[in-house]
Every structure is written in structure tokens, then in C-alpha cells.
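Q: Can someone sanity-check these two? First one:
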Amino acid sequence: MPDITPFLWFNNCAEEAIALYQRAFKDSRLIHIQRYPAEPAPLPHPEQAGRVLTAVFELAGSRLMALDGGPTFAFTPAVSLFVECATPAELEQAWETLVAGGSVLMPLLEYPGLSGAFGWLADRYGLSWQLHLSGQPQQVTPCLTFVAGQHGRAEAAMHFYSGLLAPAGIDAIARYDDSQPALAGTVQMARFRLAGRPFMALDGGPDHAFGFTEAVSLHVACATQAEVDALWPQLSAEPAAEQCGWLKDRFGLSWQIVPQRLAQLLDDPDPQRVQRVTQALLQMKKIDLATLEQAHAG
């Protein structure tokens, strides 16, 4: 079964951001950091040497990944991290830690239709968070917001993704009523699962100027090349976006479809082997594991 993890692209501040997030949530830890090599051969962007190629970490027991990718892509509210909080103290700790240096999108208040305080913010790095005093154990859930040209497509996206990444399914859907004609009948909030992991989705309206970007992708670690080969053509909808295992789907959401073995090849203690694998990877769109194994072996 593929393993799916939200993947965050930072402007060369991934370690700093992860440290901040660990202060915001209990049961958080840094699991592993893999860095861009400094040698032997130069990188396409030499200033990346020593920075974070991949970091794996947990917040409130939920796994995420990150890298230092530079300024190419920026976070938008189209993907946020929705956090359930069991107590007012948990909510206050998370809100005060994350909002410092950031901006408030929706103040932390009681809202009609929600039991418990709710707030939406963008932290100092631009990443969006929704925090809710739900009384449930603390949990971090990726939330996809379909806006502008994608508004009204949240339900179709959930059905499409659920058909690819079992065990999956839509658990609950709440819809907008007729009081907001532009939104009526579309998804106000939904919960679904992909590869056993919880997600949320909503339609956010046709008038927003933002949308999905590569700053948040869904990293799918496949056990075999056959899994990579099966998922790739079903998900990829923009040939120009295909690069090094990255793709964009029909809804504009970015994915990384990679064999699990790739992380081991790039974490080899021999810098020459890592460099050969890296150079081979940079030539690829869909990842071919056999070619990477040949490059690793020399």
C-alpha cells in the first residue's frame, strides 16, 4: 500500500519552521533530516549545499515532510493544516506560537455552526493553519480548499483520489445552503481518507485569486516500480509540470510519486553514489528505479 505524506516547500527556512511547529504542538519530533550534498560535483543550485533536501517530522503524532526549495513557490490558503484541539490550553499554545510574525485570516472566535472556538491564520512562513477547539485529541489534518476555477470540484476530487489510493473513502460531507447563492450545494466541509490517512476538503468560492501551488504537495511513497507506473498516468494532467517524480493533477494539486527505495539511495554515506543518483534523478520525469539503481552501483 502506498504511504502518503503532506510535503512542505520552504524558502530555505525548513529547520527553523519545523522547530517553531514543534513548540506549537505536543507529541512532536524531528525524525530525520537529509541534506543537499556539498560535493563532489556542483549542484544545479550550489547555494543549496547543506540545506534540507528532505526532513521528516511529526506534529501531534501526524507525519509531515519538508525541504528547502528556495523562493520559487509560495504557500497559499488553498492548502491548510487543520488542527483539532482538546483543551483551551492546547488551542492557546498553538495559536499564540503560530500567529507570532504571521497574519490572521479569521480571528479566533466562536462562529455559528461550530461548537468551540475556531481561527484561521498564516504563520510567518506563509503556511495556513485552521485551529478548532473540538474537544477531540489533538490531530493535524491536511485541508484542501477548492477556489476560483476549481470551486465546486471538491467532491469530484475526493471521489477521484479515493479511487486511486485505497484504503480510502468519503466519511462526511456538509454542504452550503441557499443563503449563499454562489456557494449553494457545494462542499462546506468534508472529511475523507486516502491510503488510510485523514484529509479534509471544501469549496471556498469562485472569487479568490489564489489556488494550489507546488509549495504543498502530497508525497506518495510506493513500495514498487509497478505502483509508481500505475499511479503516474492516472494522476498527471500537466506534462509541463512533470519533473523528478513531481506532477500536477487535473485539479491543479501537486504530487510526488516516488519509490520508497529512493530515500535510501539518496541517504547513502558515499557522496559519489549520492551524486550519481542525484544526477540521474534530475534527468527524469517519472522516476525509474532501475536506472537509479544502476547509477548508484556505478
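And here is the second, same format, sequence then C-alpha cells:
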Amino acid sequence: MVNISPYIGSISGIKIQLHWSFVLLLVFSLVLSLYLFAVIVLLFICVLLHELAHSITSKRNGIGVKKIILLPIGGASVIDMEEIDPDIEFRISIAGPIASIFIGVALGVAVVLIPGGAVRHLVQLLFLINILLGVFNLLPGFPLDGGRVFRSYEQKKHSFFDATKITVKLSKIVIVLFIVGTVIYAAVEPGYTFAYREFVVFWDILIAIFLYGGAQAEYQTAYVREMAADLRVRDAVSKDFASVKPGTTIGELYNIFMKYHTHVIIVDYGKSVKLVQGVKMGTSLNPGYMSNTVDSFCTEIPTIGINKPLPAAIDKMRNENTGIIAVKVGRKVVGVLVAQHVESVIALHISKKNASVTNKNLTNR
């Protein structure tokens, strides 16, 4: 399969990916202006350094990092946050804003030393953006770094779920204050056109919508983690799959497909597990195609232990952007998790729990 969000390399073993929408932004800016293109590239180098601070801090604290992905609205470090210690979450979260503020201060010093001109103007712009990036991310609301810093502090007195609920409530207050502040700024700040004021309000409302969506997503994740904490991967594992060896031909695969009647075919390479996709099936295919091996039709999928918490599988699917995970006992693949089935199992479990609580409350009346 062709990945339309390309990887551009890795730093300290951390893969760097450009989201397809960011690639479009780069192309669009290059068409409009070479200067604008340079500004966006330099800006996202700063964003990349911000995310690297998160990722490198994670690795130093024994937390796995899948990749960094750059988006038009910023960046994201895909980090294994399963059952993370609050103190470690604090260190990981605070590292990004500190890095941005440090870069901003360094650029501020450079502005003083650089003579006037286009270069000085560009460095001054980057100085302001990095300071704003660092300070804005310290606001105590999800999905900003400051929200995670605040939650890690609240976990000293509350459970993960309760700390998340408190932070989500604070996030909504921050969002309201952000919108009110934007409207006041647009109304009283002199020297700007009406069109510019409209643009500022429109852009900040988009940011507020993004923040609200991120806060709600954090709450939903914490809610599922709390309510389904007693479920394990084994409770949702499916045996509806077939495993083939590397080098299996399409002809051999067709016979396996007819025998097991499953569309889930995996190849176990030992250190990695891959899913066979995009293979044509049928007796009318030419012999040349049937002699191809499955290896050229494989996409790597993540793995998870059968006794791991089931909510951790949901997090892994989200982080890895996949709808299927191979389930292992030791080194052996014993089943698969499919996103729709996992969500159904969790939803049914939560529904039963809520019904039980409701019945208990009615009985006590």
C-alpha cells in the first residue's frame, strides 16, 4: 500500500512523518511565495524541535515513541502512554514548552545581533512564534501540554479518571476565556482593518473548536479506560485469521483462503507481524501473478500481549492508525483484535456496568 503521508527520515531513532495535508500546505505556499514557503519550513522545524523534546524525554524515561507527525496545525508525538506514571507524564509534557521558550530566547538574542533587513524580520517572526508556542502550550487545558502538566499534578490527590475530569472542566473555562479574549482584542485593538479582525476571530474560533474536541477526546479515553479497566485483550480476541509463512505464493494463499474462509491473513516474521492486503483472488488469474509471494502485499501491524488491558489496545490502534492488531502469547500469534469488535465488547461491558449501577440505585430507594 502507498502511504500518502510520507516519512522524511528519523532522529534519535524517532521516525518523522509529514501528514498529507501538511505536504499540500507546503506545495500551496511554494506556489504563492518562496518567502512564505521558507517561513513555513522554518516554523515547522521549530515545531519539530518542540515535539523532539517530548519524544526524547519519553525515551529517556523508558516510554516508547512510535513517531512524530507534522500537521498544518502543529505536530504530535505518538507516545505509548499506557499506565504512565504522573511524574513521567509531567516531565514529558513540560519538555516541549520549555524547548520552544528556549529556542525563542535564543532567537531573541539573534534579533539583537542581526542587522536590519529581511533576515532580521524573519528571525524576529520566529522569535515571537516560538515564545507564543511555548506559552500557549502551557495553558492548563487539553489537548495542550499544560493540560497534561495540570493532570499529572492533580493525580497526586485524585485518580487518573478524576484528574482528567477536573482538567477537562478547566479546559472548557480556558476555551471560553480564549474566545472572550479574542473578541475583546479584535474589538479594541486599533490600527487593523475589519477584514483582519474577522480573520483573527475566525482563526481563533477554529483553534477553540480544536481545543474543545481534544478535551472531549481526552475525557472519552479516560472514561473507557476507567470503565473497561477489568477487561483484557483475551476478552475480545478473534480466532478468525490464518497465518502463513514468508514466501508463500498467491496460489498457495488462495488454497488457504478457500480452506479457512477468512479475509484476515497474516505473515509472522518473528520480530514483526504483517497483514496481507490487496491480493486478487480467483482461479482465472494468470500463472505469473499466482507465483508472486505475499511479501510484496504486506503491511506491518502492531502486536499486543493477550493479558494486556483492552483499553490499551484501543490506544495502540489510535496511535498506530490501524484497525487490527495481532495478539501474542509469548512469541506466538494466537489471534487478532479488530477495532469494531473491540469497541462493541467495550460498549457492551460499559452498558452492563451502567445498568447494574442503575438497578442498584433503584433497589436502595
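A (reply): Looked at the second one. The first strand starts at residue 7 and ends at 11. The chain has eleven helices and eleven strands.
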